[in-house]
Specification:
The structure holds two protein chains of two kinds. Chain A is an alpha/beta fold. Chain A has 14 helices and 18 strands. Chain A is globular. The chains are: A alpha/beta, B alpha/beta. The interface of A and B includes residues 48, 74 and 139 of A. Bound molecules: iron/sulfur cluster (SF4).
């Protein structure tokens, strides 16, 4: 019986010729990650295990991201626990000024490569699956055990294959494909599954755009999201990889739990309405209804804050100003991206438009700091979650969109289509 | 392993942001977290919950972030067990790893009202609503998961394994 990508990678990492969905296996991991929120509990549990050293310091990455730079004394204390552990163990650690959101940072810096089993104490670890790695989020206790032993127990998941046929329309982005998909299958539509993405629409996508899709596998309940390694992947991986990699192809006779075929050319710009990433509607339906005035726009997070996203948002904002009653917060995902945006003049465009641009952090994405919403406030965001209380007060609202829509909405002061920007007077 | 307690009912898709909001993630002490458990789903819960009580929920309980703070805060609040129609993947795993039993039993959830007394028997795989005098079969655990729960969670289980290997 043929195997899916996920099954092949897991078989190779458990020393077996083959694995079947549902089997409980012990898997060797290539990379382990925790962040400032999840590392302290992982470190506590690591100590309880009575082990003195991590299994391989070069394969254990600790990244300050959520409340970094430290937002208050308590988060500073947590950060300190992580820093001291990283120093003691000699783990991979990126300090403020070099760091950023782990899911963008680690693949960009070549720590994740195709064919890896990568476990991280953060649900969006699945982002790296766009490189053809089995990347999955877990809790701190699992990560403690992985740090100590280099192994983890896992149940082999069924694979849900999603094929995007056709080409995407103008202003439709990878974000819209995945939002639409989650709207179709529901936020538990892929629970316990590996998703495997294929199709013509993907073949033409940059790695940046692909990461947005695998990132939101978490919002469908999936264990991981995988994409096949192609020329685009190799061009991304080759100059960065710190280790040898293996490209695993699904067998032609692989067995899938389900295959969903979607026509990318028929998918419109999509918005996830409060309070669920699965509560999706085509943007044009919303624009026909009552106007949705907004208080905040957030262009950031591990979903959509890569250079491509910033370029698109800046292109829309260039020479225009953010609407009077909107605060627009732009946060490049990592320091590398921040620097590139600076060199390309994007930071200047945002600043002139009246955006607040910050050093890299998760910040407002999880209602952490740097843009927390008050009761009744409405935010348009490029991030991935809009649960009650996610970005601040439980009665605040977040609308999840692609970067061009976020930029257009900032200029118009309401949920808006990028084509409407022409109606906003240019300042120069 | 069996538990008996009062049921507290919650709806579908209760995510980890509602179980323990990010504003409290700058701490990791279980008792401090327990003071805010379920705050954005039901702000009165933390004040009402008694040791041994059972959380009962609809589908996809614990979806969203991987924060272990969520099952930690539920366990530290004294909850003995969670019965839901289904659980989100990471939450399920985290709970078992912490030694907090989570049981899938849609029929029992349907039949249970707020305040009913439930009895959950993990080895027998049953959920009994004592108030309504009805018993249901839960989705059975893999033997490995029972072993983890028996050991008191993944840390204890791994510790034993590592000690056995070094002997
Ligand atoms: S940006 Fe948001 S979703 Fe991504 S890791 Fe940070 S908090 Fe999580």
């Amino acid at each position: 019986m043929g195997m899916t990508m996920a099954e092949k990678i897991l078989a190779a990492h458990s020393g077996r010729a083959g694995v079947e969905p549902g089997e409980l296996i012990n898997v060797k991991v290539d990379l382990v990650m925790a962040n400032d929120v999840t590392a302290p509990i992982a470190i506590q549990n690591f100590r309880r295990l009575g082990v003195s050293r991590v299994f391989d310091p070069e394969r254990v990455c600790l990244v300050p991201s959520h409340f970094a730079p430290n937002k208050d004394i308590r988060s500073a204390e947590q950060m300190k626990v992580m820093r001291e552990f990283a120093r003691e163990q000699g783990c991979v650690y990126y300090e403020q000024g070099q760091a950023g959101i782990e899911h963008i940072l680690l693949p960009y810096r070549g720590h994740v490569v195709p064919g890896d089993v990568y476990v991280g104490a953060d649900s969006h670890t699945c982002t790296s699956g766009a490189l053809g790695a089995f990347a999955t989020g877990m809790g701190s206790t699992d990560i403690a055990v992985a740090m100590a032993t280099g192994e983890i127990w896992m149940k082999v998941p069924e694979t849900l294959r999603v094929i995007y046929h056709g080409k995407m329309g103008r202003w439709v982005r990878s974000k819209d494909l995945i939002l639409h998909t989650i709207g179709q299958i529901g936020t538990d539509g892929a629970t316990y599954c590996a998703m495997q993405f294929e199709g013509e629409a993907l073949a033409e996508m940059s790695i940046d755009a692909r990461f947005t899709i695998t990132n939101m596998v978490a919002e469908a309940g999936g264990k991981t999201g995988l994409m096949r390694v192609d020329q685009t992947t190799l061009e991304y991986v080759r100059p960065r990889a710190r280790r040898r990699w293996t490209a695993y192809e699904p067998d032609p006779d692989a067995r899938y739990w389900q295959t969903i075929e979607l026509d990318a050319s028929a998918i419109d710009i999509t918005v996830a309405m409060p309070y669920s990433p699965g509560n999706t509607r085509p943007l044009k339906e919303l624009l026909g209804g009552p106007e949705l005035p907004i208080d905040q726009v957030f262009i950031g997070s591990c979903t959509n804050a890569r250079i491509e996203d910033l370029r698109e948002a800046a292109e829309i904002m260039r020479g225009r100003r953010v609407a009077q009653w909107v605060r627009c917060i732009v946060i490049p995902a990592t320091q590398d991206i921040y620097l590139q945006a600076l060199r390309e003049g994007l930071i200047e465009v945002f600043t002139e438009a009246g955006c607040a641009v910050s050093t890299s952090t998760c910040g407002p994405c999880l209602g952490g700091y740097m843009g927390v919403l008050a009761e009744g406030e409405r935010c348009v965001s490029t991030s991935n979650r809009n649960f009650p209380g996610r970005m601040g007060h439980p009665k605040a609202e977040s609308y999840l969109v692609n970067p061009p829509v976020a930029a257009a909405s900032a200029l118009l002061g309401r949920l808006a289509h990028p084509d409407e920007v022409a109606s906003v007077a240019a300042t120069r | 392993m069996a538990f008996r307690g009062t049921a507290h009912k919650f709806g579908a898709h209760v995510d980890t942001d509602q179980i323990i909001p990010a504003r409290y993630l700058n701490m990791s002490d279980p008792q401090e977290l327990a003071a805010h458990v379920m705050e954005d789903a039901d702000a009165t819960f933390a004040g009402r919950v008694q040791a041994g009580d059972i959380v009962v929920a609809d589908v996809n309980f614990g979806c969203g972030s991987s924060r272990e703070h969520a099952p930690i805060s539920i366990k530290a609040a004294g909850v003995s067990c969670i019965v839901a129609k289904s659980f989100a993947r990471i939450f399920f795993r985290n709970s078992i790893n912490l030694g907090l039993p989570v049981v899938e039993c849609p029929e029992a959830v349907e039949a249970t009202d707020e305040g009913d007394t439930l009895q959950v028997d993990l080895s027998a795989g049953t959920v009994t609503n004592m108030t309504k005098e009805r018993s249901f079969t839960a989705k059975p655990y893999e033997p490995f998961m029972l072993e983890l729960l028996d050991a008191g969670g993944l840390v204890e289980y791994t510790k034993r394994r590592l000690q056995a290997a070094s002997r």
